[in-house]
Amino acid sequence: MKLTLATSGLLDPRRLSAWSAERRRAIHAAVAKGMTSGGREVREAARAQMRSAFQVRRASFVASLQAKVFDQKPERLPALWVGSRIPWLGIHTHGGTVAGRMLIPLLPTRIGPKRFKAVIDGLMRSGNAFFVEKDGRVLLMAENLRENAAQLGRFKRAERERSGVKRLQRGQEIPIAVLVRQVDLKRRFDLAAGVQGALPKLAAAIGRELDKL
Question: Is 110 helix (H, G, I), strand (E, B) or coil?
């Protein structure tokens, strides 16, 4: 998504081209400096929007949202990039459908993808993973075996909470995940709103640097 600050007066491209090369370089540097300082305000506003949209458990998740100034092209005014390197975050800004065969963990709380993959790999290596169809759903199951205690800990707790029992029987089948072919995701993260709300502060930061010229 691209947001543009309205340019007028000194920053109007038609007027900017009339300045000397030295003056244009000074303006370019001032805008870049203003974007660097003001960009921090934009970043924090976007992060606040991120915190309200997600149940944040790790500070590194919010910290992944960064602001960076691109000012390497002298013939163009600098640009401020705000975004995250987390590949799946984008779909939460506009919603959409993820298609393919996917396993959704049957847990009351989130489990990280690496941890969940380790659970599945451990169950598959031991041969203790199988699918059953129940109530129109395809479930991945595993037996409550001692050799899989490390992989099954969280899933056993979830099953005890669902069934209301204090202890599961040895060899009892435990649901691990449900197999789905697509997941519909609603828009939940309004990045544009967070950025737009901080644009006046960004413009003010740029203005302060230009006033020094």
Answer: coil
